[in-house]
Amino acid sequence: MTAAAPGLVLVLNSGSSSIKFQLVDPVVGTVPLSGLVEQIGEPDGPVADHAAGLRLIHRQLTDSGIDLAAVRAVGHRVVHGGNLFYAPTLITDEVVAEVARLSELAPLHNPANVIGIELARKDFPDVPHVAVFDTGFFHSLPAAAASYAIDHDVATRYGIRRYGFHGTSHEYVSGEVAVLLGREPRELNIIVLHLGNGASASAVRGGVAVETSMGLTPLEGLVMGTRSGDIDPGVLFHLNRTAGLDIDELDELLNRRSGLKGLCGVNDFRELLEQRAAGGSRAEAATLAYDVYIHRLRKYVGAYLAVLGRVDAIAFTAGVGENAPSVREDALAGLDGLGIVVDPQRNRSGKGARVISTDASPTTVLVVPTNEELAIARAAWQFV
Ligand code: ADP
């Protein structure tokens, strides 16, 4: 008898200013309980620090009436695995120390991940804790895609390469595409467009990631809510020399005051669409923001077509990708000659995972809701 014993996985995503959690049944895929604590440490926030945040979550878990003995594993989303970690990893003291050391590469994220891990290990001392790395899926990038064209010794000494992020989502969605098409992942070339607050694209050949838009940090690539994505690094030198902005100010400019927000003042895509439809002077800025966003997306689709040579499927996912039909339509408009034909009707109707291209389109275009928590829960379940 090898039937899976019933049980739940607690999935924790401990970020710099929020902790999200889900209790997931990794076999059935249901979520009996989920929640989040936001604005940690902020003046108007509910809690002063992560420890208080996790206490709050523990109380929500206890108050829910769910038997916590059913929690058989804890899965932790960890942002940066560096060159060290890519597969889901059973957490030990040594692993925690290494994840903390990798904070150099992800100063906002890894320290918060470590705090979440340490607190949760105290709360749930008797079950396996498993780290699932956002960079993991992109460990397979070929050197030609992973390397920056800079001094080789400098790159080696400081671990400068393209790591990629959102890997759990890209892996999950590309796997779901194969399921939806009834094909084996190894037969398929897929472009995944993860468009949320952060946004990234990936090219997946036969189930293996061969290119992605994010780099050493999650700043490179597509236009995002508040991040610039691709930019000439010369802009930084220029702003430093002419405007006197120092490194921290430039960091803040590109990570928090750029992207859609920089272009039109709002980072939420729904607000952008409303502003664009409203007319007047604010609509002009919103239209430019939208156009820059779409243009960048098209460029990446074109680039990844060339990287893959043949593309069987393009999948849109995350908040914008799943819910903004105009983005899907505009990003792929006029690509009939390249074998991509979106069906306007299908694109604008329906819900959940679905095909939105015409039956005759050589490349199948899909909407595939992402589910990073389920992917993390399944990964953690392997260790039970
Ligand atoms: P996160 O990166 O925080 O997980 P999400 O994947 O939830 O982000 O995506 C958030 C983005 O999705 C926001 O910009 C939000 O405005 C956008 N979004 C959500 N619903 C819609 C919708 N119906 N139309 C357009 N954009 C949407």
TrEMBL record:
Main location: cytoplasm
Gene Ontology biological-process annotations: acetate metabolic process; acetyl-CoA biosynthetic process
UniProt keywords, alphabetically: ATP-binding, Cytoplasm, Kinase, Magnesium, Metal-binding, Nucleotide-binding, Transferase
Keyword Chaperone attached: no
Top class in the EC scheme: transferase
Domain of life of the native organism: Bacteria
GO cellular component, one term: cytoplasm
Gene Ontology MF, one: acetate kinase activity
SUBUNIT field: Homodimer.
Listed EC numbers: 2.7.2.1
Family named by the database record: Belongs to the acetokinase family.
Requisite cofactors: Mg(2+); Mn(2+)
Protein name: Acetate kinase
Cofactor descriptive note: Mg(2+). Can also accept Mn(2+).
NCBIfam families, per database record: ackA
UniProt binding sites for ATP: 20, 194-198, 268-270, 319-323
Residue sites binding Mg(2+) per the record: 13, 372
Localization (cell): Cytoplasm
Site (Transition state stabilizer): 166, 227
Pathway per the UniProt entry: Metabolic intermediate biosynthesis; acetyl-CoA biosynthesis; acetyl-CoA from acetate: step 1/2
Described function: Catalyzes the formation of acetyl phosphate from acetate and ATP. Can also catalyze the reverse reaction.
Active site: 134 (proton donor/acceptor)
Residues involved in substrate binding: 77
